């Protein structure tokens, strides 16, 4: 016996829909008064058919602005305005775009507030619009003391200490700034939104409101964000999708070096890095930071080798140091600072296996970079290996030698990217001899810089031989 099913009403007939002809609100049933605009008798039955979202039919409405041909739209409103801080402008792609929202995240005490206070002062001094700094963590007196120490006092720089979003919007109406800085977004609460300040719901609501206001009024906005234990931006992941630019402010508290690294940028490159140096009197842009990562010796010292690391699209000449300790019983220590410990362990294993004169299985090894920079890319493998070999053989490398390349498990030297840019930076600082992987020498389209001798080395043993020959010249 076969039973027939009667199609449901939802499948056979369109569901009745109701819509307010005054505001477009769609209640689930007919009402005498619209709950959205409070108009009486404005709810009418509609036979509109369309996509259903959350049980409600979504109908088409007249857009606020009609679509236009792309050739007729001006790009002038999206032109970047220099902030006055050169290294920050480098990362942003030229400056701050009116209406853009920038999220700057970093660890506590790294210098986010100091940097942005300098940016606010430079903006107030260099543009015709004021800048407004809203601090939710400090009082205006505390910010004033820091500004006095940094020399960031200007009549067009306004300060406010608020934690309520409505009060922040009130300050925007009164000051009408061209630059708004919120320090930090986790301390601002939106009225009518559930959750505590800094929670997921509050951060999402506050950020969405600030993004909407920034786009509507054309105000360049910078939001300071907290980070988690692993260094990622705290809060919901949608926070990074709402803003236009995401920057990470990095640095070791024991070092004066600070890096602003671009993670997302809708107006420029997302792989750029800005360098700063922290002083007692403030933070200073470093247009040429390579000198921080080198040590000048009166005489060559064993256990050192120079490489060129890439931070974004910027080449930085960096010194790698290695110290070979005494023989120990059991498992010797492998300690690194500023380098990748896993790559050091691999390089030591390759040296132990491929170089007969180097025995490291029972020796302590310490490796580090100079100046607080962190180098984790494989291009530093060759310099790391030569520094360890130099310390183990007590052979000082030539002070004008630079080594670039990745080392494989069989001892071969592999190709890496941006060799021409790396060699040009090394030649600018006076290095005259370079060891590079095969295929990166004078035969390539990128010819070596004038005055620099470039030698291709296919394996680690050949690289050690050429390094010893260069030190004898």
Question: Which key features would you list for this structure?
Answer:
473 residues, four-stranded mixed β-sheet, 11 helices, alpha/beta, nine-stranded mixed β-sheet, 26% helix
Report on this model:
- With 473 residues, the protein is α/β, with parallel strands linked by helices.
- α9 packs across α11 (460-472).
- Strands 7-6-8-9-5-10-11-12-13 form a nine-stranded mixed sheet, sandwiched between helices.
- It is built from eleven helices and 22 strands.
- Helices cover 26% and strands 24% of the residues.
- It is elongated, with a radius of gyration of 30 Å.
Question: Which secondary structure elements does this structure contain, and how are they paired or packed?
Answer:
Elements: H1 9-12, E1 17-20, E2 43-46, E3 52-53, E4 56-57, H2 86-92, E5 101-106, H3 112-126, E6 131-135, H4 140-150, E7 157-161, H5 165-175, E8 179-183, H6 200-217, E9 220-225, H7 238-242, E10 245-251, E11 257-265, E12 273-279, E13 282-285, E14 304-311, E15 314-327, E16 334-337, H8 341-354, E17 363-369, H9 381-393, E18 401-403, E19 406-407, E20 413-414, H10 419-428, E21 433-436, E22 453-456, H11 460-472
Parallel strand pairs: 5-9, 5-10, 6-7, 6-8, 8-9, 16-17, 18-21, 21-22
Antiparallel strand pairs: 1-2, 3-4, 10-11, 11-12, 12-13, 14-15, 15-17, 19-20
